Amino acid sequence: MSSADGAGFLDGRSEGLSSDADRRLFGLLRVLADVILVGAGTARTEMYKPARHREELAHLRAGQPPTPPIAVVTRTLELDLESPLFAGAPSHARTIVITSASSPAPLRAAAARVADVIVAGTAAVDLAEAVGALADRGLSRVLCEGGPHLLAQVAADGLVDELCLTVSPLLAGPGPHRITAGPPLAAALPMRLVHVLEADGFLFCRYLARTPPNC
Q: Hey, which of 3, 178, 181, 192 has its CA 20 to 30 A from 203?
């Protein structure tokens, strides 16, 4: 999600850039996913909860669990394990924690009591390894909701095969906040625009990567 002048957030959250149509599309993308990938910082800031069951879209998940699980990427395991994201997750969509081998073992053990834990990478989370581990669980359609550091890492690792971007008809003004953050990519990732929808001035754009992803 982005403002017309490129901001990824308003007052630190994405809510101010959204609309009713955007939220409906957001829900549809979640229904179509096997798993929702999010960084721990974004999960805290946006106060994540388990994915909501949407009865009107239930037919799109025929043969699958009613809702997809949330997978939280964290190197430090600084998580509120009593929050609704963990305590309120249904048994069919237990929250997943993705961390590295360098994370504190006691915190991994605590997380394993309320979530499924995937260890991918040594010093830092290896996202390609993590995506492979999710696929081994039958979770191959990964919807990455950010935040900006996670999305930048996904792009840098060649794991982006499409981008769904809402462009809000707002000028947020000067600021550094974009949908990606962190070190520059080794090379820009060419994308191909394949769909554009409009509602109340909001643009909903779907891009495909011009080259196949690494996995």
A: 181
